[in-house]
């Protein structure tokens, strides 16, 4: 077949069992352990017929493989490459489409300590669920003429900030199909739970040592409750986080679902929770939300 005539060739759909895949040094496919938990993977193979030849005058055709799971959109893998993130994206999409109808438009509120990844995970969840994303801190900043949270604390104090935070959560509670990243201290005011309980609250539970490492890496200047602590960045972050967590831990327990990074790492055999990808954490969040919904409807 002339490459100028046929631009691409679509091979017929085949079903393969991941357990039959054998890795090779080159031109091979690998599947993560999570994807192997599914019984079969639907694989479509296609190639662009570019006319190139090796020294033996044989045609060389670059191969591209796309995988789809349970009829969800395919992700493309080129030969010699099979990133784990593609597997995670498939599972994430599958899980989101399972629970989205069960949510009935209810909002999701992410709670947790500063630096726990509420904004990052929130944006992922909003995208896969086709929800809108809001950061309550950003809404407070907008309400105070764009003043940063750090400046609000400095100029007006924490009480002023907490009231504006409550105002923002009240407004958000009147809406539907939102993922909301809340401030680390939002859980301490009972009235905030009145608003968040109209939706589903999810606690991102991250070990304090990991939080301190993450915050120290980017600095404490934007963290008004940490910036004035003495010592190096990690030490003062860990010291202050420990105090704050002691004050808030009972309040975090009020969340409808808990996503423990320690538990995820243990299940996957990771020694460091900071090595967990945002997609993996988002998958666990969806699974915990699903568990809550099942228990709620039982």
UniProtKB/TrEMBL annotation:
This is shikimate kinase. It catalyses: shikimate + ATP = 3-phosphoshikimate + ADP + H(+). Its cofactor is Mg(2+). GO terms for biological process: amino acid biosynthetic process; aromatic amino acid family biosynthetic process; shikimate metabolic process. It comes from the Eukaryota. PANTHER family: SHIKIMATE KINASE, SHIKIMATE KINASE 1, CHLOROPLASTIC. HAMAP family: Shikimate_kinase (MF_00109). GO terms for molecular function: ATP binding; metal ion binding; shikimate kinase activity. It comes from Erythroxylum novogranatense. Its main location: plastid. The keyword Nucleotide-binding applies.
């Amino acid at each position: 077949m002339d490459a100028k005539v046929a631009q691409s060739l679509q091979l017929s759909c085949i079903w393969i069992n991941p357990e039959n895949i054998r890795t090779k040094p080159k031109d091979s496919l690998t599947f993560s352990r999570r994807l192997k938990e599914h019984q079969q993977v639907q694989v479509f193979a296609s190639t662009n017929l570019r006319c190139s030849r090796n020294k033996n005058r044989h045609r060389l055709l670059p191969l591209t493989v796309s995988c789809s799971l349970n009829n969800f959109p395919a992700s493309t893998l080129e030969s010699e490459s099979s990133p784990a993130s593609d597997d995670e994206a498939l599972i994430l999409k599958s899980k989101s489409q399972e629970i989205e109808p069960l949510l009935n438009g209810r909002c999701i509120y992410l709670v947790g300590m500063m630096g726990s990844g509420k904004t990052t995970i929130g944006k992922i969840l909003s995208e896969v669920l086709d929800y809108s994303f809001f950061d309550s801190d950003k809404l407070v900043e907008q309400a105070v003429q764009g003043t940063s949270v750090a400046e609000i604390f400095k100029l007006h104090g924490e009480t002023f900030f907490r009231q504006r935070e409550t105002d923002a959560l009240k407004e958000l509670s009147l809406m539907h199909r939102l993922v909301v990243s809340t401030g680390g201290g939002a859980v301490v005011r009972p009235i905030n739970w009145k608003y968040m309980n109209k939706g589903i609250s999810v606690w991102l539970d991250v070990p304090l040592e990991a939080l301190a490492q993450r915050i120290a890496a980017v600095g404490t200047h934007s963290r008004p409750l940490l910036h004035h602590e003495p010592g190096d960045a990690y030490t003062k972050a860990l010291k202050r986080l420990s105090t704050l967590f002691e004050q808030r831990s009972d309040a975090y327990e009020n969340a409808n679902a808990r996503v423990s990074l320690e538990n995820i790492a243990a299940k996957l055999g990771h020694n460091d929770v900071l090595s967990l990808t945002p997609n993996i954490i988002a998958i666990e969040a969806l699974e915990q939300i699903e568990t809550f919904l099942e228990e709620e409807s039982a």
